[in-house]
Design a protein that fits this description.
The protein has seven helices and four strands, in the order ααβααβαβαβα. By secondary structure, it is of the alpha+beta class. It has a domain of 123 residues: NADH Oxidase (3-Layer(aba) Sandwich), CATH 3.40.109.10. The structure holds flavin mononucleotide (FMN).
Length: 182
C-alpha cells in the first residue's frame, strides 16, 4: 500500500501515511518548524499530567556526526538536519500497574511528534538502537533522566517510502478474554 501525502489528511489517514524515513532531502528544517511540532506534541497526555519529558534538538553538525556512533553506526541519523533526543525523568517512578511513567509518557510524546511531523510533510524514524550511557555523557544529560529514544527529523528525500506490512486486525484484537472463549 502506498499512500501519498496531502495537506488535507485527517488523523486516521495521517497515521496510515506515516512511515519511517531514512534518507533526507537537502533542505534545512527551521527553528520555527521544530518549535511548532513540539508546541503541538506537548498536548500529549501523561501520567498525572507530569509531563516528565524533555526534548533536545541537535542541529550542530559535529554533534550530529557523534550521534552516528551513538546510534551504533546508523549513518542516516547524522544525515538528518535535526536529531531530536527525547528524555524521560525516571524519578517519576512506576504507576501502580508496575509500568514506568516516564517511558510511557515519553513514548506518547514521541508518537505525537512523528504524526505532527508527518502532517507538516516531514519525516522521522524512531531510533532505539543507541548507546544510552554514551548519549547521556555527550549531551550532558543530568542524573535521573534517561534517553527514551532518538528521532532524526528532516524532509524526506523521496516523497513516499514504501509501507511496511502490518498484522491483520484479527491477529492483534481479542474480544473479552485473551483466548476469545467467552
Ligand atoms: C521503539 C522503536 C525502535 C526503533 N529503532 C529503530 C532503529 O534503531 N533503527 C531503524 O532504522 N529503525 C528503527 N525503528 C523503526 C522500525 O523499524 C519501523 O517503525 C518499523 O519497521 C515499521 O516501519 P514504519 O515505521 O515505516 O511503519 C524503531 C521503531 C520503534 C517503534
Amino acid at each position: 500500500m502506498k499512500i501519498r501525502y496531502n495537506e488535507a489528511m485527517n488523523i486516521t489517514e495521517l497515521i496510515k501515511y506515516r512511515k519511517s524515513v531514512r534518507s533526507w532531502a537537502d533542505k534545512p528544517v527551521d527553528t520555527e518548524t521544530v518549535e511548532k511540532i513540539i508546541d503541538a506534541a506537548r498536548f500529549a497526555p501523561s501520567a498525572n499530567n507530569l509531563q516528565d519529558w524533555r526534548v533536545i534538538a541537535i542541529t550542530e553538525s559535529a554533534l550530529r556526526a557523534k550521534m552516528v556512533e551513538i546510534a551504533r553506526g546508523q549513518k542516516f541519523v547524522g544525515e538528518a538536519p535535526v536529531i531530536l533526543v527525547i528524555c524521560g525523568d525516571s524519578s517519576t517512578g512506576e504507576m501502580s500497574c508496575k509500568m514506568p511513567r516516564s517511558v510511557i509518557d515519553a513514548t506518547i510524546l514521541i508518537d505525537h511528534i512523528t504524526l505532527i511531523a508527518a502532517g507538516e510533510g516531514l519525516g522521522t524514524c524512531w531510533i532505539g538502537s543507541f548507546d544510552q550511557e554514551a548519549c547521556r555523557k555527550l549531551l550532558r544529560i543530568p542524573g535521573g533522566w534517561e534517553v527514551v529514544e532518538l528521532l532524526p527529523l528532516g524532509y524526506p528525500a523521496s516523497p513516499s517510502p514504501v509501507n511496511k506490512p502490518r498484522k491483520r486486525v484479527s491477529e492483534v484484537l481479542n474480544w473479552n478474554l485473551w483466548d476469545g472463549s467467552l
